[in-house]
Design a protein that fits this description.
This protein is of the alpha/beta class. Helix content is about 40%, strand content about 10%. The chain has a single domain, classed as 3-Layer(aba) Sandwich (Glycerol-3-phosphate (1)-acyltransferase), CATH 3.40.1130.10. It has eleven helices and seven strands. Strands 1-7-6-2-5-3-4 form a seven-stranded mixed beta sheet. Helix 6 packs across helix 7. The protein starts with a helix and ends in a 17-residue tail after the last helix.
Length: about 300
């Protein structure tokens, strides 16, 4: 061990003394540096995962592993698929996000022809932090790295190119899983992408996945779930990404109301703009948990109401 340490020390001294070719040559003044060769995070190349052999393996995983697993632990009730009957071409799917079970449930719920040509926008810093997790994510769920802290040009250009090639994109506009069972405000990335590419957005509401594998839990627990697809939406001519993101959030909230009440009452509240919000009441943590109440136990039938005093 002593000889090895001595050799390492000598090598480091040589690098510091002689520089090139033992280390990269400095970039001359006035010359643009070469692009970074880092292949992790947002720079991870997932093109190989969309070639035929990888797509075939992913389809086998989806039908042979994910579908029976989701049927066993999620017992999904899929609603609103008829709303996609007149829809053609690539789309952006957006959904609320409570659990790591969300993605396999959605991939087994999205109908054809999109099911086998959809990529999942995954957090670059979480899923592509190392080569192993990046390769598994890209192969198993068709994940592509998305910068969730900002709308990065690299991520936006990559998603645009995929849509131009006929791929649909599944995104979670909240940017991460729910920390307490309530939703989070939608960010503008999905809306910006849809506006930029001129494609419709399909809002989806997931209910019950937080009970299966909530944030912080490592082992799943079976529970019933509901997947509700909404009507495709397009941005208005003068609508910016922030406004469109707000409209997408309202659409997902209305679908959540529909899943926990009935279609007619949910439509009336959506038209009046009184649908229960995804983000919950602006109270302390214990009161938010109390209002959430029966939703965590899977027996919620009506919207929670404060007692009349």
């Amino acid at each position: 061990m002593g000889q090895v340490s001595l050799r390492v020390a000598k090598a480091r001294a040589m690098v510091g003394r002689f520089g090139f070719p033992w280390q990269a040559a400095p970039v001359p003044t006035g010359v643009a540096p070469a692009p970074s060769t880092r292949q992790l995070g947002a720079d991870y190349d997932t093109a190989w995962a969309r070639r035929y052999p990888a797509r075939l393996a992913r389809a086998a995983l989806l039908e042979g592993v994910m579908r029976p697993t989701m049927s066993a632990i999620a017992s999904p009730d899929r609603r609103g698929l008829d709303r996609l009957d007149d829809l053609n071409g690539p789309v952006v799917f957006v959904a609320n996000h409570h659990s790591h079970a969300d993605t396999p449930l959605l991939l087994t719920s999205i109908p054809e022809p999109w099911r086998y040509r959809v990529v999942v926008g995954a957090a670059a810093d979480y899923f592509f932090g190392n080569r192993f997790s990046g390769a598994v994510s890209a192969l198993a769920i068709g994940a592509v790295p998305i910068e969730r802290t900002r709308v990065g040009r690299r991520s936006a250009d990559m998603a645009r190119d995929l849509i131009d090639d006929g791929w649909s994109v599944l995104l979670y506009p909240e940017g991460g899983r729910s920390p307490d069972g309530w939703g989070q405000e939608f960010r503008g990335g999905a809306a910006f992408l849809a506006i930029r590419c001129g494609v419709p957005v399909v809002p989806i509401h997931l209910q019950g996945t937080g009970r299966i594998l909530r944030k912080g839990r490592t082992l799943p627990r079976p529970s019933r779930t509901t997947v509700t697809f909404g009507d495709p939406l397009r941005a208005d001519n003068d609508e910016n990404a922030r406004a469109f993101a707000g409209r997408l959030q309202a659409a997902v909230a209305a679908l959540g109301d529909e899943a926990t009440s009935d279609w007619w009452q949910a439509r009336r509240r959506a038209h009046a703009g009184t649908s229960p919000g995804l983000t919950g009441p602006d109270f302390g943590a214990w009161r938010r948990a109390w209002v959430l109440g029966d939703r965590n136990r899977g027996i919620r039938r009506k919207r929670p109401r404060w007692p009349e005093l």
